[in-house]
Amino acid sequence: MKKKIPLVLGLAAALVVVSTAGYSWNYATHAYIAGRIGTFMPILKMNQVYGILAPDIFNLEFRLMDDLVLRGYTHGIPAQDPGGLNEDFLAVWWNADGPFQKADALGYLAHNDAWGADYIAHWQAIPPLLPFPPPYQNEHPGYIVALAVQLDQLLEGYGVWAGLAAKGVVLTIDERMLFTENIVEYAGDILIKRADPLIGQKIMEAAMVRTPSFWALLMRAFPHQYQPLIKAAEDTFQQDMIQYGVLLQADEATIITVVSNQLVGFAIQYLAFKTGLPPAAFDPLRPDLFNVAFLAMNASVLICEGASYMTEVNATASFVAAQLQARNISSKLLR
Q: Which of 14, 30, 77, 123 has its CA 20 to 30 A from that of 142?
């Protein structure tokens, strides 16, 4: 019985790490990619895994969601964006000192949206996709985006959006895509867990043993205006990743239930923000919202299976390795 206590506590705490922003690939998928690039020395590999997760440390700072300067230092911006290419995240690599920080930094760079793992998920799938038809014509043809479009179409076909609208919850296409992208990302992590049953343990261990000076690396790399936020944000993120690693050691049904429950909380917080009403005003919708989230999670697992999720992830790992090599960012430099 004692062995179950940490898992039960972890599942409760893990509710707080089910995210509210579309990240392209989710944590377990990024960790899996990190396991296939760079160094294979165990302690350095753990730091590399933590590093590939770390660009998301500010994702729960909602007031910073539209901060393009910060975006440049966390994820970067690809050349296709109207604002042009932004690779400010490279500052993390150039400011890294010693093998542990370099391992963190190599993982950190592998995550990016400009030419890293998130580029494939968000901007251009492998192989390239055709533009989406209306009403999705403004979405980028990334792999995760394509799966989110499929999920949105399926939910529309089942009358889910119409059912919510009948209860007063009318969502725009952008709001629907925010929801479906998050669902697909977490469903993808379930397929990663099938391919690597130890992925939760790897995330937990990576967060536990990451170099204590990682936050100091970010302090050197980021502009001064963000420095007051870094230490607290990184401390919280480290604990969140430990808890998410614990969650991924549960069975699939438990993971889906936990994620679905938390998505209900996210939906209510979003509706309260959108309408100005207190969250309690939406409590009567909780059963309906849970049913939607639970249906969408299970449907997304099937969508990911049908879309050869692991094939795309492995192709992404090869793509990222080639991009790092082209920029002379190598595990040979971890010294």
A: 14
Q: What is the SS3 assignment for 86? A: strand
Q: What pLDDT, in 10s, does the model give residues 179-200?
A: 999 999 999 999 999 999 999 9
Residue 227 φ/ψ, nearest 5 degrees: -60, -35
Cα gap 188→201, rounded to integer Å:
17
Question: What are the backbone angles phi and psi of residue 199, rounded to the nearest 5°?
Answer: -60, -35
Kindly report the backbone phi and psi dihedral angles of residue 132, in degrees, each rounded to the nearest multiple of 5, phi listed first: -80, 150
The burial class, CB within 10 Å (0-12 / 13-18 / 19+), for 226 is: buried
Query: pTM value?
Result: 0.91
Q: Residues with Cβ < 8 Å from 254, sequence gap 6 or more? A: 11
Q: Distance (Å, rounded) from C-alpha 31 to C-alpha 192?
A: 9
DSSP assignment of 159-184: THHHHHHHTT----HHHHHHHHHHHH
Tokens found for residue 215: 């936050």
Identify whether the C-beta of residue 313 lies closer than 8 Å to the C-beta of residue 192. yes
